[in-house]
Write a structure and sequence with these properties.
Length: 740
């Protein structure tokens, strides 16, 4: 870059550039709010460097040019929660609450007349925070994050008046207090009137204020905190939930004054109604009532599902409603090819949030039927209709009703039978509730959605590579990402390219390097995440974790998939033959004929024993089943999908599944089958306990079973175990193990 400035002009320009770069650095790194594009930032730096070359005497000592990659305090540190931060199961109706109480009684095997108390308290609409105290002093504060790893916001939490720096006497040495950070309506209104930006609602304002890189900004924001739960403790707080919360109040925390004790469903529902009536005048946002089993020894027995405790329930307040016009029905194509209709609405405010889209589920829903053909509404939905939209919590808005008197369209909506993205035929298989594009990975919409899923939070979770960037790279011709493996060759391909990523709009040296580093960091990936990331139909996060635990490492998983492939083909063939049989066979003898057909297909020609064994092992994994097994094995077996998986794996270092939680338990790593009736522990509790001890629970006995717990009435499973020489124990022996 040449320059024809005088020395005085150059000095002024250098000063100006230095100030602007410093401001941009500040905005980017400390305020989390960039004010100029990376390209503009790079241009400023280039101009400064050129002037410094032309006028070496004017170069300042601490010039930004010398701060290579100048990246001061970046984001927040990560905190691994010692006990996971859970979310809550939601309920929307009185019967959900009654079911909750019934489920708990049955899990614990409590007679209907045994006392069972619950606490009921407002569900605060803020963001959860975990505070760690050691020796009575606050040592760490962390956001929930994904429940396992959160952000370290200790400096910010210290600025919140409701969060004590030191606890009043009597607290255990180690105490993790959990609760909700929130903002009152009055403080929110004041902040929006006077503050730097307008937040959509108090929850966003609270989250935006807590997650500030600069604690001085958090300090200036009126945040509050209610304590309602705990994590790690060096000594128990009390015997009951209510008692434990009372102790938190003694240590100096704010606890919600509306909490009440309930002796059953009727009392819980009465508290819910009472709190709902106070909702508008409380002065802060709540979105429901949380019920918790009061007896902490019951809570311990009930334990947790994958992301929620069995002993708590969030009973949400009803949805908010508004009328608007349905402008159009768009069809989106998902990663498994499902054609999902989306309502494009004239924007309308529903409960403080502007809504312009709503889900329409599938063609039956538009037609006004559920998937059994039963009516769910008095009419179908047509573009141009006036529709009533409702929102409940964070749920995607839905359509509650249609005003037929204002209808303008004379014909029902015609659902497309071809994929709008690739033109392939879209087929609805018998038993499936949606129509699916048959284009597979050749369909650009499916491919791009699969990629978005691949980088999503519970999958590869690559910083700087979200849905928006995936769309950009997918459409790009010089540096494309068309399948997962392409992500991991991106940096190498970029180096070999003439048009480098850093020179593009929206990118610069810093953001390109940051992206490559984030990708590199994910090359080593836990098996669970990889399985989930593949986006195989029916394989969600829970199934992925179960599969990873069952197979342990990637080579074992792949070998099992390869071994089971011939059996999966039989399974498909048998299903097809049975469907054909059903359509034809006369009513009598139907069942026998169907069973015969199934048997014939499985046995003729004979299936290698290894294939059968691999299939039985897979379908025997508790909670998975044949539908998932078939989908999984097919994904690994179908040549077009398999090459994509193989190319990806070649780029990765797949980490084996973590060892079971309780490694020192006598049943860690073992496969247990429960059969017959258990008398002292329900089947559900036994299963949960076995899993907590690091065992796998299977539904059927096979050569891989290590232990069978047989209660009275155990039949063929116990017999099979005996034949296979597997250890069989009774309930008392199991209770002795479970007590470890
Ligand atoms: S108890 C293990 N109590 O709701 C259970 N949560 O939707 C821990 N929340 O992540 C949660 N008010 O952030 C509990 N009174 C309350 C709550 C509450 C709000 C939040 C919490 C949780 C989320 C789940």
């Amino acid at each position: 870059m040449s320059t024809d400035l005088t020395a005085a002009e150059a000095a002024a320009r250098i000063k100006d550039l230095t100030a602007r770069i410093a401001q941009a650095n500040e905005d980017y790194h400390r305020r989390d709010a960039p004010t100029i594009s990376d390209a503009d930032y790079d241009a400023l730096k280039r101009e400064l460097a050129a002037l410094e070359v032309a006028f070496p005497d004017l170069k300042q000592d601490n010039s930004p040019s010398d701060q290579v990659g100048a990246a001061p305090a970046e984001g927040f540190g990560k905190v691994m929660h010692r006990q996971r931060m859970m979310s809550l199961e939601n309920a929307f109706s009185d019967s959900d609450v009654a079911d909750f109480a019934t489920r708990i009684r049955s899990f614990l095997n409590l007679p209907a007349d045994a006392p069972l108390n619950f606490t009921a308290e407002p569900k605060i609409d803020g963001l959860s925070l975990s505070l760690r105290y050691e020796g009575g002093r606050l040592v760490q504060a962390a956001t929930r994050g994904d429940g396992t790893v959160g952000e370290n916001v200790t400096a910010n939490a210290r600025t919140i008046a409701d969060i004590p720096e030191t606890l009043l006497p009597g607290a255990p040495d180690v105490l993790e207090v959990r609760g909700e950070v929130y903002m009152t309506h009055a403080d929110f209104a004041r902040l929006n009137d006077t503050g730097p930006r307008t937040f959509a609602n108090p929850r966003n304002a609270a989250a935006g204020s807590l997650r500030q890189i600069d604690p001085a900004i958090t300090a200036a924001r009126p945040l509050r905190f209610f304590a309602y739960a705990w994590g790690e403790l060096s000594a128990p707080l009390a015997d009951t939930q209510a008692g434990a919360v009372a102790r938190l109040a003694e240590f100096g925390f704010q606890t919600n004054p509306l909490m009440q004790l309930c002796d059953g469903t009727d009392a819980m529902l009465a508290v819910w109604t009472g709190i709902e009536q106070q909702r508008a005048t409380l002065g802060y946002d709540i979105d429901g009532v949380v019920y918790k089993v009061d007896d902490l020894s019951y809570q311990a027995r009930l334990g947790f599902r994958s992301t929620t405790p069995r002993w708590a329930l969030a009973h949400k307040f009803p949805a908010e409603l508004a009328w608007t016009r349905l402008e159009a029905i768009d069809i989106q194509v998902g990663r498994t090819g499902a054609l999902s209709p989306v309502a494009r609405l004239q924007p309308v405010t529903v409960g403080g949030v502007v809504v312009s889209n709503a889900t329409l589920h599938n063609e039956d829903y538009i037609a006004g039927r559920d998937n059994t053909g039963a009516p769910i509404r008095d009419t179908d939905i047509r573009p141009g209709d006036w529709v009533q939209v409702y929102r409940a919590g964070d749920v995607i808005p839905k359509i509650a009703a249609v005003d037929q008197s204002q209808r303008t369209s004379s014909a029902p909506y015609q659902f497309p039978d071809h994929c709008p993205a690739c033109g392939s035929e879209a087929i609805r298989e018998p038993g499936d509730s949606v129509r699916r594009c048959t284009g597979g990975l050749a369909c650009p919409a499916q491919a791009v959605e699969k990629l978005k899923h691949f980088v999503s939070r519970a999958a590869f979770d690559i910083e700087g590579l979200g849905a928006k960037q995936i769309e950009m790279f997918f459409a790009d011709d010089t540096l494309p990402i068309r399948e997962p493996a392409d992500i991991f060759t991106l940096a190498a391909r970029d180096k070999a390219n003439l048009s480098r990523l850093k020179n593009r709009d929206g990118f610069g040296e810093r953001s390109a390097e940051k992206l490559f580093a984030a990708i590199e960091e994910r090359r080593a990936i836990p098996l669970t995440r990889l399985i989930f990331a593949l986006g195989i139909r029916h394989v969600g996060e829970v199934a992925a974790a179960t599969l990873a635990r069952h197979f342990g490492d990637l080579p074992t998983l792949i070998a099992a998939m390869d071994a089971a492939a011939p059996a999966a083909e039989r399974h498909i063939a048998a299903d097809e033959a049975v469907a054909a049989e059903r359509a034809q066979a006369a009513a009598q003898n139907r069942r026998a004929r169907i069973a015969e057909t199934r048997d014939r297909i499985w046995s003729d020609p004979p299936l290698p024993a290894a294939a059968r064994a691999a299939w039985d092992d897979l379908t025997g994994i508790d909670g998975l089943g044949a539908v998932l097994a078939q989908s999984l094995v097919t994904a690994f077996h179908q040549p077009t999908e398999r090459v994509v998986i193989d190319r990806l794996i070649a780029q990765l270092n797949v980490l084996p599944a973590e060892a079971p939680a309780a490694q020192d338990s006598p049943v860690a790593g073992q496969t247990i089958v429960f059969t017959g009736s258990l008398e002292k522990m329900t089947r559900a509790e036994a299963k949960a306990r076995a899993e907590a001890l690091g065992a796998k629970v299977a539904g059927s006995v096979s050569a891989k079973t290590d232990l069978v717990v047989a209660g009275p009435g155990a039949g063929s499973k116990a017999k099979k175990a005996e034949d296979l020489g597997i250890r069989i124990i009774d309930e008392d022996e199991w209770l002795a193990i479970a007590a470890t």
